């Protein structure tokens, strides 16, 4: 244990002597009994390279003594030595460290250069070319490779391009080909001229070519459309429009022309024949077995009163159907319904004949 303590003290002393702190070196430099003051620079030079020529201790101590704080404080600016900047100094023009003199600086540089030669320049080694087929445990790195085939280049110069390895350009068309290329290509006829489609003739719903400007796509003529006829509608008096008739012939109105208490009549043909609209009597019309009093509707009939009276005092079913079978007469004449058309009784016709004789 004691030996360890002694060795630690010896090591500390040796360290202080080898690397004395700045305050200690200054004090040591002022000691008169020390012939040689060890400076940091000389020490470092000695440590770096013992074979390098060392600076004389006396000169170093003289320089150090001349630059001690006390001596520096007593000196004037003219007394200070002029220190040129070193040629290799990166801070050219900047004041250098005042702890060195030109002699010590030059010697230090020489000793440093001798002690530590400049490191060798790094050599650039090309990365190994990774083969595609090799099985590497790591991810293969991409590497630049020379193209196997020449890459075509385009230039605007008039010089003809270099021959390429790719497909040669197509040959220039001959004058004959040029003249035929200008024509519009023709497609084969469809259907073929000798096909069964053409043998059957044009489609039945297509007009023959030339008759229809739309290319034969016009719809075929149909027989269900209403034939074009000149309109026979008349100008109705004011207040006699279809809407006016709808308003006055509502479900609660009674336009039969008989007593309201009268039930629906059984109208025989002889009875119907007497209701012609003349002699002060209403005009009755039989339509599909029902007898209507059409006198109230006459001035509302779009075809006019005379046209309507063509079916008065008779069965007008066929006539009505010939003119306008689409008209909903049952709804329009519901308030005008008198009764049902029935056949003549057996003795009724003879009685009526006797009445005529009277
Ligand atoms: C049976 C005797 C009748 C004859 C001869 C007759 C005749 C006509 C005629 C010629 C027209 C004009 C058609 C046109 O050119 O547009 C017409 C229109 C009309 N008739 Fe009659 N008519 C008769 C009975 C009736 C009856 C009983 C009603 C109804 C209750 C009626 C209701 C109409 C209507 C609503 C129109 C207008 C049709 C439309 O706008 O398309 N007709 N009629």
TrEMBL record:
One of its GO terms (molecular function) is metal ion binding. One of its GO terms (cellular component) is cytoplasm. Residues 68-260 are annotated as: Disordered. It comes from the Eukaryota. The keyword Transferase does not apply. The keyword Glycosyltransferase does not apply. Keywords: Heme, Iron, Metal-binding. Residues 90-103 have a biased composition (Polar residues). Residues 160-174 have a biased composition (Pro residues). Residues 104-115 have a biased composition (Low complexity). InterPro entries: Cyt_B5-like_heme/steroid-bd, Cyt_B5-like_heme/steroid_sf, Cytochrome_b5/Flavoprotein_Rdt. SMART domains: Cyt-b5. Residues 264-342 form the Cytochrome b5 heme-binding domain. This is Cytochrome b5. The lineage of its organism: Eukaryota, Fungi, Dikarya, Ascomycota, Pezizomycotina.
